[in-house]
């Protein structure tokens, strides 16, 4: 006979008592170590530190290789698992973003800016580099927008409603805040009411594309997304969420030609 002191119950065998420990919500028990814990959180921490466990399936493995093979072969996990990195992701989109990152992709998109030559993993990363103003060529978000306007003459990815007389109706507007933005608790953005602990943080927010016009549009008939920056639009295209590059040869030509033509920004 085996006895559970906490529940005041007898069991015919030790195996029966062990099953009770495992299944009862009143016990926080590791059957692999035959050890009790006072709280569920402590047991979970024990699992993380001392065992190779799949949380989703609640399965345990003798070593890391066993868990790796489980993630690699299981229909529940294989489509979310990066085999080389041995990392499980929460969604297919997260896995695809990981695979498109510098971890797996070469930095083969070279910045054509004068005196730069830095490499990037994608067109969107190059566009973000130019928009940020950190390129040695002196390119900025404003010069990138003007370049795209000149290049996209048929308004495939730009909104003609934002243009008057051949130029963007809304240029990149520079906002800034002063000490007057302090409201007694934080520095408040006068455009969206978000609060920041420092004036510098607020001005960084105002210098971002957050409050700029959404001049870029996805031309896919099944998509209505708009973007304030070229880099944001390119990230959307590269994610393949709407299949734009497969469905529109015109859009494919525009996006494909951006890198080769972007040299004109800095000439």
UniProtKB/TrEMBL annotation:
Coiled coil: none annotated. It comes from the Eukaryota. It comes from Coprinopsis marcescibilis (Agaric fungus). GO terms for molecular function: zinc ion binding. This is C2H2-type domain-containing protein. Transmembrane segments: none annotated. Keywords: Metal-binding, Repeat, Zinc, Zinc-finger. Residues 28-50, 52-78, 80-109 form the C2H2-type domain. Pfam families: zf-C2H2_jaz.
């Amino acid at each position: 006979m085996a006895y559970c002191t906490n529940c005041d119950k007898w069991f015919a065998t030790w195996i029966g008592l062990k099953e009770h420990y495992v299944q009862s919500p009143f016990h926080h028990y590791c059957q692999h170590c035959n050890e009790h814990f006072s709280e569920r959180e402590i047991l979970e921490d024990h699992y993380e530190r001392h065992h190779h466990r799949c949380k989703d399936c609640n399965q345990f493995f003798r070593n890391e290789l066993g868990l790796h093979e489980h993630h690699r072969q299981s229909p529940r996990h294989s489509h979310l698992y990066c085999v080389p990195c041995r990392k499980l992701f929460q969604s297919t989109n997260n896995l695809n973003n990981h695979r498109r990152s510098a971890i797996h992709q070469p930095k083969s998109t070279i910045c054509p800016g004068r005196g730069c030559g830095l490499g990037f993993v994608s067109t969107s990363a190059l566009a973000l580099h130019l928009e940020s103003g950190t390129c040695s060529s002196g390119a900025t978000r404003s010069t990138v927008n003007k370049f795209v306007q000149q290049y996209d003459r048929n308004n495939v990815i730009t909104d003609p409603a934002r243009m008057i007389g051949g130029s963007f109706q809304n240029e990149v507007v520079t906002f800034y805040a002063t000490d007057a933005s302090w409201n007694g608790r934080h520095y408040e953005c006068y455009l969206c009411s978000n609060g920041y602990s420092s004036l510098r943080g607020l001005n960084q927010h105002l210098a971002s594309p957050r409050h700029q016009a959404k001049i870029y549009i996805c031309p896919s008939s099944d998509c209505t997304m708009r973007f304030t920056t070229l880099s944001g639009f390119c990230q959307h295209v590269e994610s393949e969420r709407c299949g734009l590059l497969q469905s529109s040869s015109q859009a494919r030509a525009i996006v494909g030609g951006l890198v080769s033509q972007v040299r004109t920004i800095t000439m």
